[in-house]
From TrEMBL:
Residue ranges of the region described as Phosphoribosyl-ATP pyrophosphohydrolase: 110-206
Region (Phosphoribosyl-AMP cyclohydrolase) location: 1-109
The name this protein goes by in its record: Histidine biosynthesis bifunctional protein HisIE
Gene that produces this protein: hisIE
Organism of this sequence: Gramella jeungdoensis
Stored SUPFAM superfamilies: all-alpha NTP pyrophosphatases, HisI-like
Phosphoribosyl-AMP cyclohydrolase domain segment(s): 27-99
Upper lineage: Bacteria, Pseudomonadati, Bacteroidota, Flavobacteriia, Flavobacteriales
C-alpha cells in the first residue's frame, strides 16, 4: 500500500473510520506512518493525536477499542478508509458515532420504507373513529384486518411473482417482485421483526 504521507507538511493523512458491519462512518482521525504500522501490527486502530503530539490508540483509556478489519487507500493515495469492529461507543461523548447517530444497520430506501410501515402500524392501533381522513391507507387497512390477511397477501404476491418469472416480461416480473417484497416487509413488522433480523439469520448461516 503506497500511502503518500509526504503530501501534507505534517506527514499526516486522514483516516475515515467505518463500522465493517453497519457501514456507518464512526469518526475521523489522522495517521502518520508510525500510527499506520502500529495499527497493522496490533490490529487496534492507532492515530496520531494532533493535540497530544503523540501516537494514540483509540480505547487505550476507555477500553473502547477499534478492532481492525480492513484498510483501503483512495485514488490519490492520501486518505484511508478503515473498517473496524468497535468495542463500545466511539465518540468521547459516549455516543455510537461522532455524529451522534445510532450505529445500526440501514438498507437505504428499504429502511425508509420500513419506517413508513411502522408509522402505518401505529395508526392501525388508533381507534378508527379517531383517525383523520388522510390517515387511511392500504397498509393501515392490512394491519386492521390482521396477520391472516397480511400473510395471505404475501402468498398471493409470491404466486404472482413465480408466474411472471416463467414468462419473458421483465417489467411485470420486477413489479410483482416489488409487490412481494413490500408485503413481506409488512408481514415482518406485523410479527414484530425487521429486515435486519432476517439478515442476521443469513449471516449466522453463512
Amino acid at each position: 500500500m503506497n500511502i503518500d504521507f509526504n503530501k501534507n507538511s505534517d506527514g499526516l493523512v486522514p483516516a475515515i473510520i467505518q463500522d465493517a458491519r453497519t457501514r456507518k462512518v464512526l469518526m475521523l482521525g489522522y495517521m502518520n506512518e508510525e500510527a499506520f504500522l502500529k495499527t497493522n501490527r496490533t490490529k487496534k486502530v492507532t492515530f496520531y493525536s494532533r493535540t497530544k503530539k503523540r501516537l494514540w490508540t483509540k480505547g487505550e483509556e476507555s477500553g473502547n477499542f477499534l478492532n481492525l478489519v480492513d484498510i483501503k487507500l483512495d485514488c490519490d493515495n492520501d486518505t484511508l478508509l478503515i473498517q473496524v469492529k468497535p468495542e463500545g461507543p466511539v465518540c468521547h461523548k459516549g455516543t455510537d458515532t461522532c455524529w451522534a447517530e445510532e450505529n445500526k444497520v440501514e438498507y437505504g430506501f428499504l429502511s425508509k420504507l420500513e419506517g413508513i410501515i411502522a408509522q402505518r402500524q401505529k395508526l392501525s392501533e388508533t381507534e378508527p373513529k379517531l383517525r383523520k381522513e388522510n390517515e387511511s391507507s392500504y397498509v393501515v387497512s392490512l394491519f386492521d384486518e390482521g396477520i391472516n390477511k397480511i400473510a395471505q397477501k404475501v402468498g398471493e404476491e409470491a404466486v404472482e411473482t413465480v408466474i411472471e418469472a416463467k414468462d419473458n416480461n421483465d417489467e411485470l416480473f420486477l413489479n410483482e417482485s416489488a409487490d412481494l417484497l413490500f408485503h413481506y416487509l409488512i408481514l415482518l413488522k406485523a410479527k414484530g421483526f425487521e429486515l435486519r433480523d432476517i439478515v442476521k439469520v443469513l449471516e449466522e448461516r453463512h
